[in-house]
Design a protein that fits this description.
4-stranded parallel β-sheet; about 45% helix; single chain; 2 domains; Rossmann fold; 10 helices; alpha/beta
Length: about 220
């Protein structure tokens, strides 16, 4: 891969702390110096995407952003675990558009047999389960458990880390998960510490999606 790549990671909520966490999580992909990854905040988004109405409400602004930035980037990542607007955005461009939920779950399937997912809130889980069912991978899901913390609260580092460890261990010990997916882009900063604490692979879906975006561009894969 010789041609420099430009990847745009879009945080569909308006919480800048989430975008900063995403930006830090992308450092692993910038190491070679041939990939530029920019992380942006959707100003029109809610502070956190915590229900179906939030997810549906950001689709139009996301489409507008893609139209504005399409000529500047080689691929796009929607950094919300609901993958809002994924298929609508794919209709707008032949460039790769990756959703973090889809990519996170697919990556987890390569790392273990029984997938555990950590959600922010109990009310988020039915929305996620509909997605798992649509992907046809329900038999690989061990369980999805909530932190019962909203997106904005995830910046409370000590409390968030304690809850992540508690829920991650419950997924492993009580539900037999042998790989865990972080079910919110706002959890990105905690991946490494959580993996060390619970002793199974932990997937940050934003990193997974960015990695896939880079591969799509490098291999010349475009949307049909």
């Amino acid at each position: 891969m010789n041609t420099p790549q430009r990847i745009l990671v879009i945080n569909p909520n308006s919480t800048e702390a989430v975008t900063r966490g995403l930006d830090a999580a992308m450092e692993c992909h910038r190491a070679g110096g041939n990939v530029t990854i920019d992380c942006v905040t959707l100003k029109e988004g809610p502070p956190g995407i915590e229900n179906q109405q939030h997810a549906d409400g950001v689709i139009a602004p996301l489409m507008n952003l893609l139209r504005e930035r399409e000529g500047q980037y080689d691929a796009f990542v929607i950094a919300c675990y609901s993958d809002p607007g994924l298929h609508s955005l794919r209709e707008l461009t032949k460039k790769p558009v990756l959703g973090i939920a889809e990519c996170g779950l697919l990556t987890a399937m390569t790392l273990g047999q029984r997938i555990g997912v950590i959600a922010i809130l109990q009310k988020s889980i039915p929305r996620h389960l509909r997605y798992v069912a649509a992907m046809g991978i329900g038999d690989r899901l061990a369980a999805e458990l909530p932190l019962e913390m909203g997106v904005v609260e995830l910046s409370q580092e000590e409390r968030t880390m304690a809850r992540l460890i508690e829920v991650g261990r419950a997924l492993r010990e009580q539900h037999g998960a042998d790989v865990v997916v972080l079910g919110c882009a706002g959890m990105a900063a905690y991946r490494g510490r959580l993996q060390q604490a619970i002793g199974v692979p932990v997937v940050d879906p934003s990193q997974a999606a960015a990695g896939m975006a880079i591969a799509h561009v490098a291999l010349g894969w475009h949307l049909a």
